[in-house]
Every structure is written in structure tokens, then in C-alpha cells.
Amino acid sequence: MARTAVTAAELGTLTQQLGLPVIDKSEEEMERAWYLHRGQKLVRQENWTQLSVEIQQFDEMRALTSGGTPISELLTRGARGDIVQPIRKSLENRDTSPKTEGLSAYQAIADANPKDYGIAMIVAYTHMDAAWVWQHYSPQPDAEISLNAQHRHFKIARALLDPFDANRLNAPALAAAKCAALPAQEKPKISLTKLYETLVSLDPKTAQYLRSFGVNLLPGRFGSYEILNAWALKALEHTRTLWGTGAYAWVYLDALRQDAGAFGVLDLNLFMEALIDILDRCGDQHTANLLAAFTAVTLVQPAPGYESLFGRRKRLQLNEAADWIIETQLREIHPLVWADALPRSFGIPGDLGTEACKDLGRETAVRILAHRHSKSGH
To answer: Are 150 and 131 a contacting pair, CB within 8 Å?
Structure first.
């Protein structure tokens, strides 16, 4: 997406007027990149023992990046980045018998270390990645061969994780992996709340866990709107000492992005109070950008699904509330966060490179912030 000189000049002027620095690589992005690379490097050196030790240590410490991402999860993700690419390439080329030597090699390592939950987690997640690749890249995602492959990979993932007890091991990352393997459960709707209760009780501080809980509570997944709201309120009570009312917003955040119907049951005043509580507790600019971009960009358009008039009113009120976050919390612009906040309906290709994403995010942020700035008469 080459920019014209005119656009570049215009954006430069607007950025200057805003007086907010555009951070090319935020602290959160640098930390994420470091741990992803660390996981990848240890696997390429075949140093599985060290990798597992680090995953388990960071898990026990509940260690997070400055923007709140669990470090153990980043190491796990880095360790499996290479493996499912050949499967994806085969499926994109319409070859439905992809080569899985990499997966088999990982499986052998897990088999050789049956008591090591760090290794089991990496291999289980790799199988889940493979299942999602089949779902997203198969020439016919609903064909029997594709559904069987998805089911098989999830089943293997669950079998790898089942022998380990997250409570006994004091291991929230393991509990999170079991939640990710929900599609493999015979009765996922019943297992869902039990698995997430374990996860939130082990680590109430990690917002990412509350966010994924909310998405799984949607009717398109394993819940209903009423269950979503009931659990958002329950999570609030469980985590009040840490988050104030913040957990209510965390549980809803990604659910509102994915399903317009979720606005129907949302308590708007409580959600706004929850956003204030989150921003009071997280002084980092990653979170400020995340919530500013969510309210100012994501909520400009309805999410997929049915939007009632009542739901629409709440969405637009929340979109207006972005001004408060921008004026009181935003000290710098993180372009990737703004690019990620763009509604899915904008049809942005999923494989846009990092630099193109940054350009898109910067332009989105600068234009929206400048527009709001001029509207409020500053």
C-alpha cells in the first residue's frame, strides 16, 4: 500500500497538530518479539528441557509483559511458529494430504517426556494450530476430510493435556491450554465454565484469560448472551480486589467485537465504570491504546450478527465515550493496536505484513484522533 506524497505530508501535519508521538515499536511489541524469538530459538536448538523449565517458571510467577501478555504463552507460541506452515501451504495449494513430519517429530518429544507439562502444552497447542489451519485454509472447510482432521488434532491436544492437573501444578498457562482445547470436549458447554473457573481462580490478574472466556460464552460458541452477562458479573466479584469492576469489561471486550447481539445484555454504565477501573490500574500505554482504539475504531460499525435498536444505542454511546479515554489517558500512539481494532467488515487482508499494518494503524489513529479533536473544538 504505497502512500502518495500528498497523503504522507497530510498525515505528518495532522500528527504534528495532535502532539502525540507515534511509537514505531512499543515496549509491549518489543517484549513480545523477544519471548517469541526465545521460544523459537530454544526449539531450533532442540533445547526442549530449558524451554520447558522457562515456561513453567514464568507460569508459576504469573509473569506478564508490560502490556499484560503471559510470558509463558509467548514462549509456547514462539516454539511452534514453524510447524504448521507446511500444512497451511499444502491446503492453500488445494492438497488435502499435507506433510506432517514436523508435527510427528514434536509428538515424539511429548511421548518421550510424559511427565512434562511444558512440553505437553507446546505440542497440544501445535495440534490446535493445525486444526485451525484446516478450518481456515482447507479448500472445503466443511468437507468430511477437513472436519475429521480438525477433530483429530483437537482430540490429540486434549489427550496430551488431560494427564495434568492445573490446580495441583499451580499452572494457569496449563489451565488456559485446556480452555483452548474446549472443542475437543464431549460436552463443551458444561466443561467451559468449570475450566475457566479454574483458570480465573489460578490467575485472576491476566486480562487475556477473561477476554477469551467472554468469546467462548457467546451463543456462536458454547454459551448464550444471558450466560455471558452472568459470568461477566461473577468474574467481577471474583476479581474485585485486583480489578475493581474491571473484569466486567474484560469479559465483554472481544465478545462485543465478534457479535453485535452481545450489546443487548450489556450493562452500559457498569461497562464504562469497568473501563475507568482498568485504566486506573494499568498505567501502561498499550492498554490505553487498546481501549481508545476499541471505543473509537471498532465500535464505529456493528459487529456481525443482529443489532437491535437498543444495542445500537449502547454501541454509539460507548463510541462517544472514546473522547474521555483519548483526552485523559493517551500519551502516545501505537499503530499496530489501532490496525488490529479495525472492524472485520473493512475487509483488510489477514496476511498484511507488519509494516503495512503499521502504516494502516498510524493513518487510522491519526485521522480519527484529529477528527475527534476538531469536533470537540480543541
So the answer is: yes
φ, ψ for residue 266, nearest 5 deg: -70, 135
CA distance 256 to 214: 9
Q: Is 102 exposed, middle or buried (0-12, 13-18, 19+ CB in 10 A)?
A: middle
Largest CA distance in the chain: 66
* pTM of the predicted model over 0.90: yes
State how far the Cα of 297 lies from the Cα of 301, in Å rounded to an integer: 8
Cβ-defined contacts of 195-202 (< 8 Å, 24+) = 196/231, 198/166, 198/167, 199/166, 199/172, 199/175, 200/235, 200/238, 200/239, 201/238, 202/166, 202/167, 202/170, 202/171, 202/172, 202/175
**pLDDT recorded at residue 1:** 46
Number of neighbouring beta carbons within 10 Å of residue 130 = 26
pLDDT in tens, 337-365: 999 999 876 767 666 788 989 999 999 99
User: Which DSSP string do the residues of 93-162 spell out, in sequence order?
Assistant: TT-SS---HHHHHHHHHHHH-TT-HHHHHHHHHHHHHHHHHHHHHSSSTTSHHHHHHHHHHHHHHHHHHT
List the end-to-end C-alpha distance of the chain, in Å, as a whole number: 32
Cell numbers that stand for 191 in this block: 466443561
pLDDT less than 70: residues of the chain: 1-3, 345, 347, 349-351, 376-378
Q: How far apart are CA 237 and CA 260, in angstroms?
A: 25
- Residue 273 grid cell: 465504570
Q: Could you say which DSSP state residue 303 is in?
A: P
